[in-house]
Every structure is written in C-alpha cells, then in structure tokens.
Amino acid sequence: MVEQSKEEKFHQYILNLPQDKKDAVKGKPTEVLKLIDEYPEWFMNIGPDKGAFIVKEIVKKQPKIMIEMGGYIGYSAVLFASQLIADPEAKYYSFEASHEFAKIAQDVIDLAGLTKKVEIIVGKASYTLVDFKERLKKSSSYTPIDFVFIDHDKNSYVPDLCLCEKLNFIAPGTVIAADNLYSAPEYKEYVRLSPEEKKRYPGRWNIIYETKSHEFELRGGHKDAVELTKCIDYLSG
C-alpha cells in the first residue's frame, strides 16, 4: 500500500473535520488559514509573515485581476483572494500544475467561502497562460494583469515571467511579488536587467521595472526573501 503524502493526509483531515468544527470555520478565510498553520506537518506555503507583507501591497493596489503561479494547497489563494471580497468585479486566478494539489486547494478555497472569487486553472503555466490570454481577449473588459504572485517551480520563474511579458500581461502599474527568492537567484538578476540586456531573453525587452528584495526572518531561524517588482514604464523606440 502506497503511503499517503502529507498533502493527502491534510486533505483527508479537512474533509473529515467534525461538523461543529467545520461549521466554526466555514466561510471564514482567517480560520481556514489557521487550520493549515496549526497542522502538525509543515507545508511550503507563503506563511503569515511574508503573506502579511504581500497583503499590504494587494490592499494598496486593489487589483481587479490577480494571478498566482503555484497554488499548492490553496493557502495563498485564500489569504490573498480574501482581500478582494469587497470588489465584486475582482477575480483571483490560481495556476497550479498538479491535479492532486488543485483538488486539495479547491476544497480549502470552498471551505473558506471563496469559491466564486477564486478560479483554479490546472496545468503547466507555460501552456495555460497562453489559453488564459485568449480567454481574456474575448472579454470586453480585458486589461493587463494588476498583480502577479509567483511561487511555483523555481526554474520556471524567469521563463514564465518572460511569457507573461510576451503576452502583454505586464503593463505600467502591474505589481509582481515572487516568493522564495533565495532559491531563485536568477529571477532577481532578471528583473534587474536593463532593457538592452533583456534583449537576449524571449520576453518583452522594453519593460522597465522598479524592484526591491524584502528579507524575512522566519520561524525556526530560517531566512527568505520576497522580490517586489513594479512595472513603471515601457521604453519607447
């Protein structure tokens, strides 16, 4: 018999919550996040400290469209999408490559009462982002993406940001937050390149970024950083 992963065990845990406990947390994003934070196993989520930092940026930006690359078990979707509740037009799209994790995330999102606010798009972002662009183009209210959260396969940070640039998702005013920066040093290098230096990459070379690393001392003595990047202009010519 194949042993369950910690994610599968957590999935069974939330599905089998006693009815009184389920009723106590249902429709309450903060309480659902506590279930994950207090679970005995550690999960690779954004967590409360870095999460609070990004929440402040979301509140400042008030995005109409926010996407994340790397939904995992739904922690970040619940945390960040709960900031969009006041705006009925705002929508959160979670791109997750794993069908298994997407199922878990959907149940976590449903438990938090965010089913209508969050949509999970399953498959590798390098494919699903292209389909997503075609879908948005059919909408009469199409705009670039307001806020992007990157927290998936570290080797995909730069290629998938380049794809977002190429698809014109990134425009002046777009905010990008990338987690686990210590594990993705090439991403930090990329967003600091000049437009001339970016010409060797497949993205949109003329995007001008303003970017800064924000370091965090995490529980257990670990350190990590979030890169907060803002598209400030297009280079003309």
Question: Summed up, what is this model?
Answer:
The protein has nine helices and seven strands, in the order ααααβαβαβαβαβαββ.
What is the count of structural domains?
1
CATH class placement: Alpha Beta
Query: Which spans have pLDDT < 50 for at least 5 consecutive residues?
Result: none
What's the CATH architecture?
Answer: 3-Layer(aba) Sandwich
Annotation, overall tally of beta strands: 7
Report the CATH superfamily: Vaccinia Virus protein VP39
- State which percent range the strand residues make up: 15-25%
Q: What characteristic shape results from the CA principal axes?
A: globular
Please trace the helix and strand order, writing H or E for each element: HHHHEHEHEHEHEHEE
How would you describe what is shown here?
The longest helix is centred in the first third of the chain and has 15 residues, at about 45-60. The protein is about 40% helix and about 20% strand. The chain has a seven-stranded mixed β-sheet with strand order 3-2-1-4-5-7-6, with helices on both faces. The model has no long low-confidence stretch (mean pLDDT about 95). It contains nine helices and seven strands. It has one domain (about 5-235): 3-Layer(aba) Sandwich (Rossmann fold). With about 240 residues, it is an alpha/beta fold.
